[in-house]
Design goal:
seven-stranded mixed beta sheet, 279 residues, binds the ligand O=C(O)C(=O)C[C@H](O)C(=O)CO, Jelly Rolls, mainly beta, binds zinc ion, globular
Amino acid sequence: MTTYDVRYAIHEDHYKTLDTEGLRKHFLVETVFVKDEVCLTYTHYERMIVGGIWPVSKPVRLETIDSLKSAHFLDRRELGAMNIGGPARITVDGEIFELAHKEAIYIGAGNKEVVFESLDAANPAKLYVNSAPAHTSYPTKKVGQEDADVLALGSTETSNKRVIRKLLVNSVVQTCQLQMGMTELLDGSVWNTMPAHIHDRRMEAYFYFKVPEDQAVCHFMGSEKETRHLWVKNEQAVVSPPWSMHCGAGTASYIFIWGMAGENLDYDDMDKFNASDIL
Ligand SMILES: O=C(O)C(=O)C[C@H](O)C(=O)CO
Ligand SMILES: [Zn+2]
């Protein structure tokens, strides 16, 4: 079964008028995973779809949704998935891929039958997905942690020592517009994405996980002169419009998956701000 929600794009002037409830309604995805379901949020930011696939007691099929008006989900789209759970088997038009914890897959446009299943019912797979429109079909490819383009950033002095693993980026796999990766905060570090940045050419979604149950991440958004925050719990996502900076601080260390779509595939295309310049 597939459930989905649609988020229309919000202008920055409208954003400034929103209260906590309004901000959470438009930018926070509170439910990413539902057992035995595909749970999606179709955003109108680059038409990026953010979602979760959690096959627990049975295989789960990727079905088209009415918003796409296409016979199959991937007729005009590409999809990236990252496994945050136990071992997964993904069958793409008859070809089988197995994904361990923290491994990723890129699935190219034009594939018709995509099925996700868990290999261990006691430790089910959990696949966080991002999907964006695709102009052509690139080959489906599994990407393991060892294949990632790795970037070590930050320091313990500034509480932001972290490892960025770029898994689905153009140095690793061919994609049309999708980029995805995983950033892990080292023990004791809590700040991600410092210096914070904007990339007006791409939207982004952040999905936070491994946030201890009694802790949270405070995610910051908006222009650097007009920030707001969202308190995010474990396994929730934030949609970041192209005009919005994005960074966060946890009350404990955590991991997050970032995914982008838009004008370019240049990860380093960012306008950065010093922390002391943010209002
Ligand atoms: O901690 C970081 O820094 C990040 O992970 C930054 C994201 O990768 C990002 O925002 C890319 O545009
Ligand atoms: Zn970014």
